[in-house]
Specification:
four-stranded antiparallel β-sheet; five-stranded mixed β-sheet; about 250 residues; 7 helices; Arc Repressor Mutant, subunit A; globular; Jelly Rolls; alpha+beta; single chain
């Protein structure tokens, strides 16, 4: 089976006005196939979005009880509790996080994150995603596609688009994904929402631009989908992020 990643190639940046350089998403365009939405480079301060850095980190803080439900990342997620009471729920069990220590959630594991803060004692933690290689031929197909959708959500990830790149009929691709317990539509929707969550918490980019960046249909209600998935609004997720990273950290993993 041909690699899903062989069709990646670098193209010139958006133009002289773009200051993103090698980080510009236009330098990671697909050789063939449609691009959904507006694929203009959108790096901050120059109107562009960067590609995902090797490490994506956001700091969350809450003065009340807030939960983020059904987090399902395609890359390892490290959570570092920094203050107050934070709880991770996975596989039906809850784990209280000790400030200054971290826990790493393996890819493709569903968790709920609870910040149990109060006016007298806020709860805070740091989320960190370390992007590794997009995947290996030994990984399940749905895992490789999930990683690529998270990294480049703006592309139109149709069955035909992917099937052409792995030299497989689209019908066989759908059957294979079904045998692995997923469907392409659900897979793409999930990873686009995961990327939207982190982009929303990492900065103050306008919602319309975020929607285009993650490849959401122009007429789709992404804010309702976001709330249905995570149990909070996009605005609440933005307010949780205080955009600073504390130094205290001791690994117990």
């Amino acid at each position: 089976m041909a690699s899903l990643w062989r069709s990646m190639a670098r193209r010139p940046c958006c133009g002289p006005a773009c200051g993103a350089g090698k980080r510009c998403v236009r330098k990671l365009q697909m050789v063939r196939g449609p691009v959904s939405g507006d694929d203009r480079c959108r790096y901050p301060a120059t109107g562009c979005f960067p590609s995902l850095p090797s490490t994506m980190r956001v700091h969350l803080q809450s003065y009340s009880h807030v939960s983020l439900h059904r987090l399902f990342l395609a890359f390892p997620l490290t959570i570092v509790a920094t203050h107050g009471r934070s709880v991770v729920r996975r596989r039906g069990h809850e784990r209280l996080l000790v400030p200054g220590h971290d826990v790493t959630i393996e890819p493709f594991e569903t968790i709920d994150m609870h910040l149990d803060g109060s006016s007298g004692q806020p709860s805070s933690c740091t989320f960190e995603i370390r992007r590794g290689m997009p995947g290996t031929p030994q990984d399940a197909l749905h895992q490789r596609i999930s990683r690529r959708v998270f990294l480049q959500p703006q592309y139109a990830w149709s069955a035909g688009f992917i099937a052409e790149r792995i030299d497989m009929p689209a019908t066989q691709l759908r059957r294979l994904l079904f045998s692995q317990g997923t469907a392409l539509t659900d897979l793409c929707r999930t990873q686009r929402l995961m990327r939207l969550l982190f982009e929303a918490m990492a900065g103050d980019v306008a919602m319309a631009d975020l929607k285009r960046f993650v490849g959401w249909p122009p007429n789709g209600d992404v804010e309702s989908a976001f709330y249905d998935r995570f149990g909070v609004s996009v605005q609440t997720a933005r307010r949780l992020a205080s955009h600073r990273v504390p130094e205290l950290r001791r690994s117990i993993a």
